[in-house]
Amino acid sequence: MKTRSQTAPKPLKTVALAPRPSSSKGGSKPAGKGDPLAPKKPPTAFFFYMEDFRKTYKQENPSVKSMQEVGKACGEKWNKMAFEEKVKYYDIATQKRAEFDKAMIEYKKKKESIEMSEESDYD
DNA sequence: ACAGTGATTGTTTAA
DNA sequence: TTAAACAATCACTGT
């Protein structure tokens, strides 16, 4: 009924379209243009599960050093996890998103304000 | 010594 | 609607 954030599995993905040079390496950019005060994305349900999974994994696999293996193992199990189990983590992520959502609204308002000012203010 | 890389999936945002 | 980018973790590696 509702198409709200429907992360529908669409294997149809083209390539590269909007590369956003946020700030990976190089950096010198006049502050105020990018999103220096933009609320960062909260960890997703997958990450919450990983926190728990990570500990368990290390206990059973103290030999594993890199996080890469844990990530794979976590992802693989995540796909096998029952929805009921996942819902538990989704619930947490949902709450975080709620807070993030509010922060984003205010950020947007402020951002618009900044853009407006910038438009006619240069020195 | 510092900072980036590596993999995982989910959520985000801009046009 | 689409798709690219980024969110955390943590040992290792390059300069």
TrEMBL record:
The protein's matches in InterPro entries, at most eight in alphabetical order, are given as:
HMG_box_dom (IPR009071), HMG_box_dom_sf (IPR036910), HMGB_plant (IPR031061)
Superkingdom of origin organism: Eukaryota
Q: Which GO terms describe its cellular component?
A: nucleus
Q: Which Pfam families match?
A: HMG_box
Task: From the Swiss-Prot or TrEMBL record, state where the protein is found.
Answer: Nucleus
Alphabetically, the GO molecular function entries are: DNA binding
Q: Where is the HMG box domain?
A: 39-108
Q: Could you tell me where the Low complexity compositional bias lies?
A: 19-36
Region spans: Disordered? 1-40
- The protein here is known as HMG box domain-containing protein
DNA-binding region(s): which residue ranges?
A: 39-108
Major location, coarse class? nucleus
Q: Known SUPFAM superfamilies for this protein?
A: HMG-box
